[in-house]
Design goal:
- 30% of the residues lie in helices and 24% in strands.
- The protein is an alpha+beta fold.
- Strand 2 and strand 3 form a beta hairpin.
- Helix 1 runs antiparallel to helix 4.
- The longest helix is centred in the C-terminal third of the chain and has 26 residues.
- The two termini are 15 Å apart.
Length: 195
């Protein structure tokens, strides 16, 4: 009977740990300033079309709302900090962690900052759909065409080399330990039932 309880506990343990360490926080943003003020606060401002969205942690067992998504842009015009015809930016997976919800094939006016070697965009930035950016564009004036031509996916700074694998190893070790515990428990139950 004790072994059956131990096995039941071991099978439920990963779920208990997963739910007990998960906490959620709502994103709280202040009112953004004018387009010119936000451009001054931002490291980069450009307009462009979303070509692709990659979830760098999609294969992980446990995902955080703060995990980063890679957003691949074709840059149309630039006002600050971006010179390439393509840009790779990062945002948190969910709006609860202040991630901006981009859509493939939509065009955006993007405001963001460089953090940890990555171009980051937040829900709290003045980033908006181009269809809703007329007032900002009037204040910013005409942007410039990007001066550095890059092929699809080539030369984009902050690409695959900067993916954050920091959680892959701990989760893999945890999964292996759980499997080993289950196997040992199964062998103990089988051994005790054969007596």
């Amino acid at each position: 009977m004790k072994i059956k309880l131990l096995i039941a506990f071991l099978l439920m343990f990963p779920f208990v740990v997963n739910f007990s360490t998960t906490s959620s926080f709502a994103c709280s943003c202040g009112q953004p300033g004018s387009a010119v003020e936000e451009m001054d606060r931002s490291d980069f401002v450009f307009s462009g079309k979303v070509l692709d969205i990659q979830d760098t942690n999609k294969s992980l067992f446990s995902q955080s709302s703060a995990g980063l998504l890679e957003i691949h842009f074709e840059v149309s015009n630039t006002w600050k900090g971006v010179n390439e015809t393509e840009a790779l930016i990062f945002t948190e997976r969910e709006s609860a962690s202040c991630g901006y919800n981009f859509t493939i094939d939509e065009e955006y006016l993007v405001y963001g900052n460089n953090e940890g070697g990555k171009k980051r965009v937040s829900l709290c930035s003045k980033t908006t759909l181009m269809s809703e950016a007329a007032a900002d564009l009037n204040l910013l004036g005409e942007g410039q065409k990007p001066s550095v031509e890059v092929g699809k996916g080539e030369g984009i700074k902050g690409g695959n080399a900067l993916r954050d694998p920091s959680m892959t190893i701990p989760i893999s070790i945890f999964a292996i330990v759980v499997v080993l515990i289950i196997l040992v428990s199964y062998m103990l139950v089988k051994k005790s039932s054969s007596k």
